[in-house]
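To assess whether ligand presence alters the predicted conformation, the chain was also submitted together with 2-acetamido-2-deoxy-beta-D-glucopyranose. Input:
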Amino acid sequence: MASSIPSSHLKIFFPILLSFSLIFSISHPAIAASPSYSPPPPSNFTNTLKSYKAFIKQYCSSTTYPKNCYKYLSPYASVIKTSPLVLTKSSIYVSLKQTIKSYSALKSLTKVKGLTHNETQVIKDCYENIGDSLDEVKDSAAAVKNLTGGNTYEEAFEWSNIKTWMSAAITSYYTCTDEFDELTIRGSLQKKITTDVLKAENMVSNALSCVNKFTSY
Ligand SMILES: *[C@@H]1O[C@H](CO)[C@@H](O)[C@H](O)[C@H]1NC(C)=O
Ligand SMILES: *[C@@H]1O[C@H](CO)[C@@H](O)[C@H](O)[C@H]1NC(C)=O
Ligand SMILES: *[C@@H]1O[C@H](CO)[C@@H](O)[C@H](O)[C@H]1NC(C)=O
């Protein structure tokens, strides 16, 4: 089922994310096990921010699209600091943000006039597929909100759900682009849809890499 998210929804995620960093009780072994990026004395802001960004770059290096990962997470360096948990949560919020954007881009395409029968069908299917992805990424974002990185059965269960949802979201993106094998549409339109869908797919893939890395310690 395609779902709709009010755009006002978007605005609340980052403030929520910001507040996370204040209330975390950092207890996950991943944090202890993470490379020693001890930030320099807080008196030197430039140095500190640099080390936070270095941490993000290093963490992103094992994701599917490292450059994209760094590009979209580094603006949150001062929130993420050197916390693998906050980084992982942020990666999910960033992927939710992009999925919402891609979803609304597809929605706009459904209103374009003068489409061929094939084009109408492809856009309709892709819109539905992205809607499914959006539901799954939304569920992941809601579930991760409560997680503290604690080593409990409940948390492990939630992380496992998140992995399942994000994998399903990725599958839905490819279900969309697979349509091009079945139905021939204008090259320019195919390119536009592919770009929109893959932007979201890349972010979700990265977020899933972050989740896998975080839970593999
Ligand atoms: C902070 O670090 C930067 C880069 O290493 C250095 O250029 C600057 O002089 C430092 N500032 C202070 C106040 O120590
Ligand atoms: C998060 O925790 C609160 C308080 O424990 C609970 O009421 C809420 O249902 C939880 N949300 C999710 C998505 O698990
Ligand atoms: C629709 O797609 C089919 C399958 O690729 C193709 O044979 C057909 O020519 C397409 N129709 C139009 C109008 O492009």
